[in-house]
Amino acid sequence: MIHTGVRLALGALVAGFLFESAPLFAQSSANPGAGSVAAQHHTTRVLAIGKLTEKAKSADLPEVLSREVPATLELYLRGKIADWYATAEQTEVVFLLNVTSVEEARALLEPLPLGQAGMMTFDLTPIGPLLPLGRLLKAKN
Q: Taking the model in full, what pTM does it have?
């Protein structure tokens, strides 16, 4: 567990980089994407947060879960799920997927039994390196 002071310092560092680099994220209207951090960003993983729907309250949930667990474990064993967690409230599942696009993540998750039964939906967020940290490397040179 990260000490509260260290966590605050890390948060301030990241926030500072994001704030200081905000102009880099803006795209020029004359030449969209030219030199911007957004244009340089590349997705290395997808964060998937799954939420149960109202349909999950049905009596069919135990049977669907009995198929969901092995199917999810199969994705993990194939290396598609890097990490999996639950939120502190245990109301959402969080997967860190080893895929490079939201489309690829969707293609893996939608066929799972809970998704097919309409009992779970996923919010998918592409993630990648925090590019403003590259400024630290340039400062050393």
A: 0.69
